[in-house]
Amino acid sequence: MKKFLLLTFMFAFGLATALAVTDGVSYEKVNGIGIKNMWIIDRAHTPDVYSVQPYCNTYARTAVMKDGFIYIARSNANTIIQGTDTLTQSVIYKLDAVDGHIVKELALTLDGEIYGGAVLSCNTVGVDNFGHLYMAPYTSELATEQPVYLVDKETGELTLVEMLDKGDALQRCDYIDVMGDLTREEAECNIMTVGASSEYIYRWHCEQGDDYWEGGFDGDPYLAILDFYPETVTNWGYAPVVKMVLADEEDYSGELFYVDGFHSSPILYDVTGTMVDNFENVDPAFWPSEVGANGVCEFTLEGRHFIVYVIAQYSGVIEETGVNRACQVNICELGGGESMTLTDMQRYWMVPDELGTMSDGGTRVESMNVEYGTDAEGNEEVTLFIYKNYNGMAVYKIGANVGGDEPDPGMPGDVNGDGEITIADVNTLIDQILNATGTTASDVNRDGEINVADVNALISIILS
After folding, report:
1. What is d(CA 331, CA 309) in angstroms, rounded to the nearest whole number?
2. Quick one: how far is CA 206 from the chain centroid?
3. Under a CB-based contact definition with an 8 Å cutoff, are residues 159 and 135 in contact?
4. Which of 202, 214, 344, 355 shows the greatest Cβ crowding within 10 Å of its Cβ?
């Protein structure tokens, strides 16, 4: 009877969430720090499952993880009939960060009306340093302002933060970055974006408790960058991204920032436009393998400083190993002591083994961000989320007690150890859950627990 009830529960509720598997890779610990994949939904590991998701669309361009949820922005996802009018509405998909199933579709509204229609009307989704969800559209080289909106995480209602004046240097802007508090209740706020195929960057600043947004370059909203790397590069190229660096827990000035611009590696600048660091003296093995892969972020762990950046967009092979590079990122510890230089950085891992090799039609950005936490023993842990439009996403746990010393789980999903993954493994796993037994192989999703989530993961393996 218990088994029947559990199966009924699973197929009524769980099967829809049985999306994710793990990448199946055992990563070695480096300098006492380990990493493991919690789950992955993508073209390489779960192609049949991923391809039918509503966010598997070239207009679902960016994503972010925060407080146990993942938010994926998709422009003009729904068609709405209002009287004789046919309208398109943008949405943000809200996913459970534990296993990737869709919790809710946030259909966006603004001032009580459907929001959408314009090209790439929902292009950037992100969170500020105080957990506020925001969204920004692409703006063209004809647009004089860059709007930024706060998003209600339960209803999808938008609230305009500001129409930010671009000044006299009008360029196409694809993606934005925010540092501080968009509400300005608890801290100042800075917003940046980059002009595509240009030398311009934009920046706006608002003090805590204020409503006045000023240009972030001595009062000007834009600045022309003169120094690039490689030196043959004279502009950012297509769909560049900017990422401000958090100097410390209470400094939201964002005076240092990376720009990653299609045909260049990530370059670190300060607010004067001076190049602070680049890949000139970095081991060539660490270089992105092709143009067009944009995305970078930093995090700290156990007092060490790390950078995560896109190593490849759709394809590329490491000659010495034959490993395929497809929408992967490098995770490196920055070197040089307090200077935290790129030159002396040490690569820890490249993850995942693959996401996919499908062109997303020119999105070029790969989203990534981290959340901080602790393990059961109080040690620092980082959860890393990566997302590449039209190819997939994955969640990784990083920390001193992660990976490295775990027993070999065998074939993922082979719960009964017969060398095959079938419905027999599902029955065995259900019996183990009901009787509070199990082995390492029973922890199918590798989260350290054996429960219904593992049954969902096992069903996903069988279906895909």
Report:
1. 7
2. 26
3. no
4. 355
3-class DSSP state of 320: coil
What is the distance between the alpha carbons of residues 97 and 70, in angstroms, rounded to a whole number? 6
Task: Give me the residue label for tokens 């003296």.
Answer: 281
> Which residues neighbour 231 within 8 Å (Cβ) at sequence distance 6 or greater?
none
Q: What average pLDDT does this structure show over 4-10? A: 47
What's the whole-model pTM score?
0.85
Neighbours of 298 (CB within 10 A): 19
Q: Residue 157 has which token pair?
A: 């209602």
- What 8-state DSSP symbol labels residue 388? E
Note the pLDDT tens digit of each residue in 115-173. Answer: 999 999 999 999 999 999 999 999 999 999 999 999 999 999 999 999 999 999 999 99
CB 125 within 8 Å of CB 112: no
C-alpha dihedral, 290 to 296 to 302 to 304, nearest 10°: 70
Closest CA to 242 of 280, 269, 224: 269
Residue linked to tokens 């380990």? 34
Task: Burial-class residue 111 by CB neighbours within 10 Å (0-12, 13-18, 19+).
Answer: exposed
Provide the token pair at 66. 């925060």
Amino acid at 318: I
3-class SS of residue 407: coil
What is the pLDDT averaged over residues 283-297?
83
